[in-house]
Specification:
single chain, 111 residues, alpha+beta, three-stranded antiparallel β-sheet, 25% helix
């Protein structure tokens, strides 16, 4: 996961958060040379984008391993084309190489 450059650290506010030592150690191990604080910022920004509706993941067909037919239970947007998928409409669920399911419009995999 790469850190998005949003602002310099001198413009950031210090926030204290209590974490279990095991969690902090695992975050440090996952972050590699980036540092666990940058990793936590990335995770928090992703959460905010997803919850605010601003999140539009960037996927390509190469990121997909499989697709299965489904019915949208809520309004969705195709991750490949951005096409709206209304609630109760046919859609596809694409299984990504990372193991996540993402919404696809039925015609998004056609050439």
């Amino acid at each position: 996961m790469r850190t998005l450059t949003r602002t310099t650290t001198t413009e950031m506010e210090v926030t204290s958060i209590r974490l279990e030592r095991e969690l902090k150690d695992k975050l440090k191990a996952l972050s590699g040379n980036t540092g666990y604080q940058a990793l936590i910022r990335d995770v928090l920004w992703s959460y905010v984008q997803q919850k605010s509706g601003d999140y539009r993941p960037q996927f390509s067909r190469q990121d997909l391993r499989a697709a299965v037919e489904a019915i949208a239970q809520t309004d969705q947007h195709c991750v490949l084309t951005g096409t709206p998928i209304p609630q109760n409409s046919p859609m596809l669920l694409g299984l990504t190489t990372a193991g996540d399911f993402v919404p696809l419009s039925p015609d998004s995999l056609h050439d």
